[in-house]
Structure formats: C-alpha cells, structure tokens
Design a protein that fits this description.
This protein is of the alpha+beta class and 484 residues long. The protein has two domains: 25-217, Creatine Amidinohydrolase, Chain A, domain 1; 221-469, Creatinase/methionine aminopeptidase superfamily (Creatine Amidinohydrolase, Alpha-Beta Complex), CATH 3.90.230.10. It contains twelve helices and 20 strands. It has a six-stranded mixed β-sheet with strand order 6-5-4-1-7-8, sandwiched between helices. The protein has a four-stranded antiparallel β-sheet with strand order 15-16-19-20, with helices on one face. The protein is globular and about 75 Å long. It binds glycine and manganese (II) ion (MN) (2 copies).
Length: 484
C-alpha cells in the first residue's frame, strides 16, 4: 500500500501536476500571496484600507469573450484567477458584527452549477478559503450589505476607475455592480471619475494616487518563488528562439515562425504569451510593436526580428533575437547587428543596484549615435534621428512592462536591456541600409554587484547565431500536405 502511495506521489511530481490533474502544481502558493498581503499592510499609511478589484471579462465578439486574464495586482495578492471579485486589505485589525477579528476580506463569485457546466469550475468562497487560505471569503452577493465603516478611515486606497467595465444588467453582482456598490459605500463623487473632479469635491479619504507606488515597491523586487517562475518563462522562450534558429528557411511565413515559437511555449506548458508576439521580416522589423505577422514568404536577403515571451504561471519573459533568414548575416546586417550588441554590452557593464533606466538608455544612445556616424548613416553624433526611438529597459514580471521603480535599481529586480536600430525604407541614408531592423533584448536579474543574464540560452553573437542556424531541426521532416 505504502509503495502504491509512493508511486502515485512520484507520478504527480513527475507530471508536475497537483492531485487535481487539471491544475499545475507549480503556481505560487497561498503562503506567497499571504506574505505579499502582509508586506503591503506594512507599507499602508495609518488607519487605511486598500481596495482591489478583479479584472473584468472583455468581449471579443458576439457571445465569445477574450480568454480571461486576472489583474496582476489582484493575482499577486490572492492567487485568485476569476472575475467579479473585490479584495480589502486593512492596515489595522477590524472587528465584524459577530465579533470576528480580521484584517483582510474578499468577496468572490458564488458557485453556479449551470455556469460551471459551460465555463468551468469556480472556487467559490469555500474554495477560496481552503485553496487560497483567505479565511474571510464571502460571496460577492454579500458585498452590498456587508457593513464596513469606510468613513472612519483616513485613507481608502484604490486605483481610479476607467469606466470601461461592461454592465451585465441581468447580474447584480458582476464587476460593474461591485464597483457601483463600492462607490456608494465610499461616497465616490458622481458623474465624473475622481481623476477630473475638483479638489474641493473630492472626498478627503479617497486616495487614488498612492497605491501604484506601494504596489510598484513590492512587485518590482522579486522573491525567490517569483524568480523560479521567471527563469522558467525565460528558459522556455530561449528554447523557442533556438528551435526557430535551426528550423527557419526562406519561403516560410512570419506566422509560421510565430507558430514554432508558440508551439514550444505550449510544449513546455506555458499557458499563454505574455504579450502579442512580434515577428517581423525585413522592413516589418522597423515597426516596434508589429503584431500583424502576415508576411507570407520571408526571403533569404532579409533579417527577421522575433520578440516573444512565454507566460508561465503568470510570469512573462521578454526576449528578442534578430537573425538572418539565410543563416548568414550580410556585411551591412552584421555591422548594424554588432553595433546594437555593443550598445547592449555597454549597458550591461554599468547595470547594478543604484543605476537608473535613464543611465542605461544614455549609454546605449551614445554607442549607437557614434556607430551610426562612423557608418555614414548619421552626419554627426548629435544629429536628431529616429533610428533608436525607444528606451533601453523595463521591469518584467506578471506584466511584460511590470511595476517597479525606474530611478534606482535594487537587488532582485528583473529587467530587460533592449537597444535597437531600425532603418525603414526611404530613410535619409544610403539605401543599402534600408529595411534593416535589429533589436537584441535580454532579461537580467539585478544582483548585489551587477547582473545575471537569465536569457543566456539563446545565442546572441553573430558567430553563435550562425553556428546554431547550421544545425538540423526536428521540423525539417515535418512537412504538411498542400491545402486545396
Ligand atoms: N515586447 C515588448 C517590449 O519589448 O517592450
Ligand atoms: Mn521589452
Ligand atoms: Mn520585447
């Protein structure tokens, strides 16, 4: 019997799934989320409450909705992955009418057999208590009548409303209704958003300005549990880049390249992409957030810019590689590529605790301006231009552009360093440069003294890329029939 149990346990471990085989076992634990709520409570101002709403469901068309994605703050603090919920975190202990003492409370969707038949299981308040460890969990149908004396707080912290949540008129406990009920409870000014109300009209204890800073302070510095998931997302994304480097051939389509990346993501059980995949061949690489990925035939004279990140248990990578479709960089492509690489290397050298994003952007701009001048693409290093129109860095985590301080890096932050050069057709330079677009984007953990490059697995130098592109691919033999 013992042996059987052991074997069953091992099987679950090997598969990486919990006893409910539909749910992966490596999501963040209830203890993680509890710890984050405690940390937030420590940073809340005296006599305050922080209020968070779940993300709404968004309609795609007719009766089809977009795949649901929880609001990252809500997820970070609870682990709850459903809509129509509100979370209250109090600075101080509260006493309920029945004498219960509590410092956080959540209202969630009730169980509903018919809804669950069509759309899958809900945790319900019991599930939230047992699976997420939030003991004060109630049905959202109880929120309206639940008595919280909001007037007594010096600060009610929440994100101001964008008024972009749909009202399901048949449901008095949808997210829209929860927000309306909250507005009544806190005397939220009517007929306007708090963003544009006159100061004298604004209730003194409504604070829509400070929560973002508090959450940025928390979410910007990653815990070891988060780092494990980020490393996994990054490794999966790097593996996809490697497989594409081996498989790519002239005549493939941008969409097909996107498909190979995303197949690898899913093969490793990543639930999603962290942002829409960018796969741009030739001039399409010049569009920074190119998402069409329509080009049917990529050609051997082009490079292809591939900016994709797997989302694994909520955490996303953000990696860009730019490679020659032919497997060998042309002289012009190589010159631009190596200039971007040098800019990235210089930024990596100065990156450590205390440095600001702007410092790294300036370093990369200096390298790129000098190089473009030497290549004759700029007339002078100080000439204004649009060949590198974006900043160099951002945090990654639950969001691809994650919350976190930008002015002073701290140990255990995770950021990208991603310089680029984009020379669209008809640019004011020799036309041999036209259509060249290069971005090199890697993900870095800030250590005590510098950085740990998390995305090493994906080759980055010209020699390493060209060498890997010579290797055979498992997809060489994967030939699908023609469609007629
Ligand atoms: N993938 C979006 C970005 O690099 O910021
Ligand atoms: Mn990025
Ligand atoms: Mn990117």
């Amino acid at each position: 019997m013992k042996l059987l149990l052991l074997m069953a346990c091992l099987l679950f471990c090997v598969e990486g799934f919990s006893q409910d085989k539909n749910v992966p076992a490596d999501f963040l634990t209830p203890d993680f989320h509890k710890g984050r709520r405690e940390k937030l409570r420590e940073t809340l101002p005296p006599n305050s409450v922080a209020v968070f709403f779940a993300n709404p469901v968004r309609n795609r068309s007719n009766d089809v909705d977009f795949v649901y994605h929880q609001d990252p703050d809500f997820y970070y603090l609870t682990g709850y992955k459903e809509t129509d919920a509100v979370l209250l975190i109090f600075k101080d202990k509260q006493t309920a009418a029945n004498g219960t003492v509590y410092s956080e409370i959540i209202f969630v969707r009730p169980r509903n057999a018919n809804e669950e038949l069509w759309n899958g299981g809900r945790l319900g308040k019991e599930g939230v208590r047992s699976a997420l460890g939030l003991n004060q969990a109630f049905n959202n149908t109880d929120f309206k009548k639940y008595n919280v004396d909001f007037a007594k707080f010096s600060n009610i912290l929440f994100y101001d409303f964008n008024n972009d949540v749909r009202d399901d008129a048949s449901d008095s406990t949808d997210l829209y209704s929860l927000i309306e009920q909250f507005k009544v409870k806190v005397n939220y000014p009517s007929k306007s958003t708090a963003l544009n109300v006159q100061p004298e009209q604004k209730k003194k204890n409504l604070n829509t300005s400070d929560l973002d800073n508090l959450m940025s302070g928390l979410r910007g510095v990653k815990t070891k549990e988060e780092l494990e998931l980020i490393r996994k997302a990054v490794n999966i994304s790097c593996t996809a880049q490697r497989e594409v480097m081996k498989a790519i051939k002239p005549g493939m389509s941008e969409r097909e390249i996107q498909g190979i990346h995303e197949f690898v993501f899913k093969k490793y059980q990543a639930e999603d992409v962290g942002y829409p995949s960018i796969v741009g061949a030739g001039n399409n690489g010049c569009i920074l957030h190119y998402e069409d990925n329509y080009k049917p035939l990529i050609t051997s004279s082009e490079m292809i810019l591939m900016d994709l990140g797997a989302e694994y248990r909520g955490y996303t990578a953000d990696i860009t590689r730019t490679i020659p479709v032919s497997g060998k960089f042309s002289p012009e492509q190589k010159l631009i590529y190596e200039l971007v690489l040098k800019a990235q290397e210089e930024a990596m050298k100065i990156c450590k605790p205390g440095i600001a994003f702007q410092d790294m952007t300036l370093v990369t701009q200096a390298v790129i301006n000098k190089g473009l001048k030497e290549l004759g693409i700029l007339k002078s290093e100080t000439e204004r231009h649009n060949y590198y129109p974006h900043g160099c860095c951002h945090h990654i985590g639950l969001d691809v552009h994650d919350k976190g301080a930008r002015m002073r890096l701290l140990e255990n932050m995770v950021i990208t360093i991603e310089p680029g050069i984009y020379i669209p057709q008809n640019s004011p330079c020799d036309k041999r440069w036209w259509g060249i677009a290069v971005r090199i984007e890697d993900d870095f953990l800030i250590t005590k003294t510098g950085v740990d490059q998390l995305s090493k697995l994906a080759p980055r130098t010209v020699d390493d890329i060209e060498a890997l592109m010579k290797e055979p691919s498992a997809l060489d033999d994967f030939v699908l029939p023609e469609l007629h």
